[in-house]
Structures are given as structure tokens and as C-alpha cells.
Amino acid sequence: MGKTASHITDELxxxxxxxxxxLLGLSSADSxxxxxxxxxxxxxxxxxMEGVSFCNSGMLHPSQASPWLQLGFSEAQRLSVGKxxxxxxxxxxxxxTKRAKDLxxxxxxxxxxxxxIFPDTDSWAAAAQRCDQxxxxxxxxxAGALFGDKPALFYADDRSGNAYDYGLAxxxxxxxxxxxxxMGQGAAPWIVDGRVIGVRLGNRDIRARHxxxxxxxQSERLAARAGINLPMKRAAGWAVNYRKPVDLDLPDYPxxxxxxxxxxxxxxxxxxxxxxxxxxxxxxxxxxxxxxxPQLMDALGAPIAEPWSAIRPVSVTGKPYIGRxxxxxxxxxxxxxxxxxxxxxxxxxLLAEMIVDGKSDVRFSVPAQAD
Length: 371
Ligand SMILES: Cc1cc2nc3c(=O)[nH]c(=O)nc-3n(C[C@H](O)[C@H](O)[C@H](O)COP(=O)(O)OP(=O)(O)OC[C@H]3O[C@@H](n4cnc5c(N)ncnc54)[C@H](O)[C@@H]3O)c2cc1C
Known about the structure:
By secondary structure, this protein is α/β, with parallel strands linked by helices. The chain has helices spanning 23-34, 75-102, 121-134, 163-176, 219-225, 283-292, 294-299, 340-357, and strands at residues 13-19, 39-43, 59-60, 114-117, 139-142, 151-155, 159-160, 180-183, 188-192, 195-200, 205-213, 232-243, 255-257, 262-267, 270-275, 308-315, 321-324, 330-334.
């Protein structure tokens, strides 16, 4: 896939070099290549999709466009942010569904909806009201016997799919369309005379007309080193994978629970519990699902791998940062928080429209001042 760093000479130049081969970097590359630009994607890991994008809950959920309550946004902010994110999410899910079909991923973008369970009727009613205000389709109904018939909302327009499979297929596809993917080396913006002219890797530099920072939770630190303010909140999440029990009738859509912002999803033979917010271990995640669905948890054997965790890149505005930074030559596509899978293709498209067509969209603007 792509080329290794040693096969690329210093003279090679690109229209765009991207820092980060996660969902956002790869989707940006995809849209830029479709518009005829030459692209190089770099990542510090040895393979694409090994950052936050590696093991998520797989929900394509425009229904969750509002920032999480736990992140400290007021109700008015949640509505206003929710409106902007919802419109990008709706477009994005449309693009992902089409792209997944092109990539031969039949199970990706499944139109089965998502269910969300609430700890009490007050939070349930508040969420239903917010959905109504935003125009998000929601059916009020009990969660079903397996989940203690707790109050729940069913979002029929949500979809789901394995983000990791999608990202790997996308990486292969963009490489086959001419992108170079340089793995295994940390990159930093290469600044000359107050302008970013590409990236600096450990053993060489790559020149490009435009540089895109899509380094997930590491974006804030990399931006700060370049004198750019890209403030993020930290929101750790966990994932624990089990073999799917064969003798239980599980719903064929993901099930979220609102109390700890976690979800139960099935990917083939694997059942994944994932999410939670800011916890030091996977224990609270297991505990909450044991309280909600004891019969299900009894039927699970031991996890099939060690618990996995990552820090979500959460912008302080609750909306992703997409666009031009204060430093000439440097663009940003990050800060998608709990919505990065849902928003990836729409964000990639928007960034490409900005770079290629000069489009601007103040809803997702990057903080203006350099430190
Ligand atoms: C438990 C969990 C469940 C989730 N569930 C969902 C869900 O159901 N639906 C949804 O929409 N979203 C979900 N999300 C959110 C979503 O997964 C993230 O928003 C998304 O993966 C972020 O993608 P990214 O490309 O910004 O970051 P990443 O995937 O982290 O990609 C950034 C890449 O940059 C690389 N990098 C960092 N520093 C450097 C450097 N100096 N040089 C080169 N490369 C560098 C990293 O190695 C990484 O590969 C979930 C997140 C978590 C943690």
C-alpha cells in the first residue's frame, strides 16, 4: 500500500500533504484526489487507522449531533451546535453510504437505525424534545426485555458500519488512485518564513502547496508547536470485544445508553461494548451494561482481547475545526469528538471544497489567532 518513506525522494512535491491516516485524514485525501489533486498521507503508526478510529462503536448517528451533556455545554449551545453538526452529518452519512458501496463493503452504512436507552424519564423526555426541535426523527418506545424495558428513543434514520474496515478500504483505494501513504514516522508542519510549506519527518521533509493537520487528539499539540491555538477537551473512551453469544436474540442495530455515552454494537461474530467518557478503565463500561442487560452480560464469555482505549479529539466549540488555520499553508480537519465516523466523508468533502474552490464555512472555522 502506497510507498514507504525510503522510496520517496526529497524532490517529490504534492498539492497536499496530510498529517494523520485516520478517518479524517483518509476522507480528506479521498475528496482531494477526486478533485484532481496529488496527495501524500503521513502517519506515525505503522498502518492506517491505528489511532482513535481503530475500534469505535460503528454508529453513523446524525441523531447525536448535539454535544454531550457531560462536556459542559449549555442547553442553548447544544441546540445551536446540534443544528450545524446535523446538517454536515446528514450529508456525510449519504456520502459514506455511497462510498462504502463503491468500496464493496455491503455491511457498511446499514440502514437499520440506532436505539438509545435513558437512565430516567426526565433525560428521555429532554432528549426527545431536543430531537423534535432539531427535526431528528425519533420514536419513543421501551428498550425491550433484554434491556429492562428502560425508556428509549429509536432513531430510524441512523445507520451503522465498521469504521475500521471502511478506513482500510479507503486507504487502499486512494493508494490505487495515486496517493502516497508514508507510515511509521512522526510529522510536524514545516514552517519557513511564517508559512507552512509541507511536513518534516524524522529523516526527510515533504514539500506541498497545502498541509492538512488531521492528527486526531495529537492535533492540539502539533498546532501549538506551530504557534496555532486549537483548543480541545479530553474525553477518553474504551472498547471491549466479546464473541457474540449465539443463543440470544440481539437487535440488529446498535444500542446506545445515554448515562455514560456508551454503546453495544455487533460486527459479524464480535459484540463490542464501547464508549464511556473520561474513565480510567473499562470497568464502569462493563458495570453499566451489567446493570442494564444482566442476561446479556451473563451470556458473554471473557473478552477476546485486552480492553482498548483512546482519547476522542473534542473541539471546545462542540463542532469540528475544518478549514484554513491562521498560519498560511496550514489547514485543519479535526476535533470531531464522538462524531468522527459519522462526519468523516462530509468533512473531507468540505475541506476539499475549501482548498480547491475557495469555499468558506464559518460554522466550522478554526480559531483565528496564532499564539
Ligand atoms: C470508544 C469510541 C467510540 C466511538 N464511536 C463512534 C461512533 O459510533 N460514531 C462516530 O461517529 N464516532 C465515534 N467515535 C469517534 C470517532 O472514532 C473519532 O472522532 C474519529 O475516529 C477521529 O478520527 P481522526 O482521524 O480525527 O483521529 P485518528 O483516528 O486518531 O487519526 C489521527 C491519526 O494521526 C496520527 N498522528 C498523530 N500524530 C502524528 C504525527 N505527529 N505525525 C503523523 N501522524 C500522526 C495518529 O497516529 C492517527 O492515526 C468513537 C470514539 C471512541 C473513542
